[in-house]
From TrEMBL:
Alphabetical keyword list: Methyltransferase, S-adenosyl-L-methionine, Transferase
Protein's name in the database: Methyltransferase
Highest taxon of the lineage: Bacteria
A Pfam family per the record: Methyltransf_2
GO biological process: methylation
Gene3D superfamilies in the record: 1.10.287.1350, Vaccinia Virus protein VP39 (3.40.50.150), Winged helix-like DNA-binding domain superfamily/Winged helix DNA-binding domain (1.10.10.10)
Domain O-methyltransferase dimerisation: 37-113
Residue intervals of the O-methyltransferase C-terminal domain: 139-339
Amino acid sequence: MRSAVVPPWFVVKSLFALLRGLDRLRNTLTPPPLRLMELVGGYGATQIVRSAAELGLADLLAAGPKTIAELAAGCGADEDALARLIRPLCSLGICRKSASRGAFALGPLGEYLRSDHPETFRATAIAAGREQYDGMAGLTASIRRGGATFPERQGSDFFSCLAQREESGRHFADSMAEISRACLPAVLAEYDFSTIRHLVDVAGGTGALLNGILARYPQMAGTLFEQPSIVARVESSPGQSARCRCVAGDMFDAVPAGGDAYLLQRVLHDWDDEGALRILANCRRVMPSNGRLLLLELGMGGDDEQFVRFHADLLMLSLFGGRERTDDEFRDLLDRAGFTLHCVIETRSPLRIYEAFPSRWGTE
Ligand SMILES: C[S@@+](CC[C@H](N)C(=O)[O-])C[C@H]1O[C@@H](n2cnc3c(N)ncnc32)[C@H](O)[C@@H]1O
């Protein structure tokens, strides 16, 4: 299996320019009604890939090609219906027809739906098609209102909902870890964490990012701070570094003291300014005056018009009333919480790193 490498900047920039050009070309060449049909059918791809992941087709095909009958028996599916699912999976590159007659094999994308692949995206494929999918279905109402609609659609806020639904909660947490692992090499390539002695990862999920950083920096200690339901699951898991302690709590009440650096990855985008300010104020309260705050966020604005940012921004609106922020919005937010934004670092992933320090006039 391929190990994660960070391609040179010129390769990344050229590739994205080429893909943007190809997108424009496709929009120009495809008759508008056909292009619109492709776009509005996007939900189909989400659910088709989710089904493949939930049925565990990639795991069944990992050992080699199988017929529909063998696959249906392996995942407990109706043969005719499964044959109809395999067709679009072949056209999407998840599966492919095998050389042996009537059998199917894994396509290049399907490898990443194997649960044992080191860069698996299986949980992400499932999580995207569940609560997040329903959250996006409330988008029109969220645009009208300018706030979240998920709580009234599902009866509770997003994180309470995941805490009540064991399977969905696990898929979401695993999805966050998968995305963290995918972005980690790009983050490590751009940021020097070597002067940090104790890093506190606030709302750090299952600790994929923190453990990845600790593995690179053997002198560093870490604290993973999360909701009790997540901590209960991860604190005894084999993936946790011996240098990482897990602390359960509510970041709106307080965050653990003791760090010289505090990190929040994809946390502030879940919250409106009021929520984000409360979290930042709690970090500021326990940070030494020479401490450091690192925000890893998708961000918004700049030359980079990646659809992923616009999509995430609207997903955050529908689910939480949150938002992806521009550099100026981060600067303003940080300023109000007693921090000064020092720099914004692009990475060869969708994440940007916002480095900030306590302001001299901030609350001590
Ligand atoms: C979008 S996820 C990001 C997780 C992780 N930082 C990452 O990038 O993979 C947001 C995280 O916030 C955590 N969270 C939500 N509310 C929280 C609270 N009140 N206190 C602590 N953590 C919370 C969730 O459990 C979830 O893991």
